[in-house]
Amino acid sequence: FQYLKRFDQGCNLDMFWYEALSVEGSPAECLQLFLLHCGIVDPSWAELRNFTWFLNIQLRDCEASVFCNPDFVQDTLKGF
């Protein structure tokens, strides 16, 4: 949710890191963003769960990768 919210606001995500245990927005806002970005017109709860699970894994792996660390790559992969 934190990434999607900032993405919709046009923020630069290159320097953003997930803030564990922090609460942002309401449950309704969270659901609305998931529905907007999941890519399915009328998703089931299982499809929403799979979307959030997959997105979470991809973002966690991205944050853990040295190749996505802005301190390591500096400006060579801007916007990647």
Automatic annotation (TrEMBL):
Give one GO term, molecular function aspect: ligase activity
Q: Which UniProt keywords apply?
A: Ligase
Q: Which GO terms describe its biological process?
A: negative regulation of non-canonical Wnt signaling pathway; sprouting angiogenesis; ubiquitin-dependent protein catabolic process
Entry's InterPro entries? RNF213 (IPR031248)
GO cellular component annotations, sorted alphabetically?
cytosol; membrane; nucleolus
Spell out the protein name for this chain.
Answer: RN213 ligase
Organism (species): Struthidea cinerea
What gene name is given for the protein in this entry?
Rnf213_2
